[in-house]
Amino acid sequence: MDYDVKDINLADKGRLRVEWARREMPVLDAIRERFEKEKPLKGLRLAACLHVTTETAVLAATLKAGGATVHLCASNPLSTQDDVAAYLAKHEGIPTFAIKGEDGDTYYKHIHQALDVKPQLTMDDGADIVFTVHTKRQELLPGVLAGTEETTTGVIRLKAMAQDGVLKYPIIAVNDAMTKYLFDNRYGTGQSTMDGILRATNRLMSGSIFVVAGYGWCGRGLAMRARGMGARVIITEVDPLKALEALMDGYEVLPMSQAAKVGDIFCTLTGDINVIREEHFLLMKDGAILSNSGHFNVEIDIDSLTRSSTAQRPIRDFVEEYTLKNGKRLYLLAEGRLVNLAAAEGHPSAVMDMSFANQALAAEFISKNHGKFKKQVYPVPLEIDQEIARLKLAAMGVMIDTLTPEQEKYLASYDLGT
Prior knowledge:
The protein has helices at 11-22, 26-38, 54-65, 82-90, 104-115, 128-135, 152-163, 178-201, 217-228, 240-248, 256-262, 278-281, 302-307, 339-342, 349-369, 382-395, 405-412, and strands at residues 45-50, 69-74, 96-97, 121-124, 146-149, 171-173, 209-213, 232-236, 252-253, 265-268, 289-292, 309-316, 319-324, 329-333, 377-379. With 418 residues, the chain is an alpha/beta fold.
């Protein structure tokens, strides 16, 4: 079996960590048990480009249990957990191509190695594998039935491709499932991003001025966690509705040009490019911390930060010090990449349980219904969303009400008013 991991001897350590994660993933565990019996993915070749973490290992094993042939590569050069990659290769028999800290050439080589399975289904986190198929591996296109996409940034890219008429196969936007973005994006990103910033810096949050760029679901989650730890939170936004929501949620709302002057810690979560750029760096306090929890390392303009600096040095793990021409020092975390996965371990297993349950059930849905799709981006079917929520509630020991026949009739009628 072909694989490329840092050290295959880390596999036993990885096995224990995956076992720990699986304890908090009862929904995916229930799906795996059913998949083992029914084999709904039998014969399906699947190339996955995801963060190679303990939770991803549980998903990959679930897909394999369903009968799929799975090849896995990393969706970010700094997010791989090397012991987990080794575990997948050695103990699960899943060809895995991922090394934490891999350079750009290795990153794309690994994507091509995952694609060598000649996939019928792609599973993506950021759309890099889809884009590679469309640009570098077009010979694979006739065999691809459909794909899934895990994150906001990837969905944005894929919808743009569909809008321009260049998307060559249909995509299920797993990111847009309510059991994904309401929980993973908000609670998962909120907690794991704060975890990454704290591990990298060991700075006190209480009393600090914390600037969150973007008040989508990820930004909401981080703002909530920062305020909960005693920080004074400022939100920057370009969307007037989200800015108004942030204001009514009790946060201060400023343009970045003003927030840059007062912030102690900055984190971007927008999915857009150059959110913090040269004119902002020059306004910042000496010692300001810059981080990103959007998918790609483009939200902080690192090129202009480098040009504005006279010196640069690593000062802690995942912390790079830039001395600006004005003498101030700024600190960039995790090379501007996802701080929650580069400097920490990513989302807690309990929340990824729902996100990856969506991936597994979307794969099953595609295997049964691929002939019905056009070359567009589709939402996860509502019945899958609701089934995952039901399974999660049951696993947590929570019961809810059901409608009586009288209530169902009332909700379906129009003639029962006052």
